[in-house]
Design a protein that fits this description.
Layout lengths: L9 H26 L2 H7 L8 H29 L44 H5 L3 H6 L10 H9 L1
Length: 159
């Protein structure tokens, strides 16, 4: 099995158990250091420990850094990578698939057009079938995925 697979392996289980135990022991030692008075440590012969001030200061500092990163730095990086509103990169990128013709469709021959059988002409969707590709009409398939030109979209929406 390749080593970079995310599935469980015996070595990952051993490393996971070791990290779990190391974290538990470190956390318990931190809680004991923070909660037990210094006099008790001096009675045991342990004289060099950090001040209890750091038991409060370090977690607050770490949480402040995490909050600063999560709410200010990370969103700012996202905004820096976002293209300007006037840029064409917001609409089209290197993976865009544009069709050869500008209107993204080829009209079917007049003789092959399907007659409209709609009861209400205002809800007629015949124009969709009239603009389908001839090959698509012959095999009754869904046309391929492709991007629309922004000029065509603006023309259809606003003109």
């Amino acid at each position: 099995m390749p080593e970079h697979m995310p599935g469980p392996t015996p070595s990952r289980g051993v490393y996971g158990l070791a990290m779990h135990l190391a974290f538990q022991i470190t956390f318990i030692a931190f809680i004991i250091w923070a909660a037990v008075p210094e006099k008790w440590f001096h009675d045991l012969g342990i004289t060099y420990l950090p001040q209890h001030y750091w038991a409060v200061a370090v977690p607050i500092f770490v949480l402040t850094v995490i909050a600063l990163f999560a709410f200010i730095i990370y969103p700012s990086l996202g905004l820096l990578m976002t293209p300007d509103i006037d840029s064409l990169d917001t609409i089209q990128d290197s993976h865009s698939k544009l069709s050869n013709d500008r209107k993204n469709h080829i009209n079917v021959d007049k003789k092959r057009r399907i007659p409209c059988v709609c009861r209400k002409q205002t809800f007629c969707m015949k124009h969709i079938y009239d603009t389908m590709d001839d090959a698509v009409m012959q095999r009754n398939a869904i046309p391929g995925v492709r991007d629309l030109h922004i000029e065509d979209v603006s023309e259809d929406l606003y003109l």
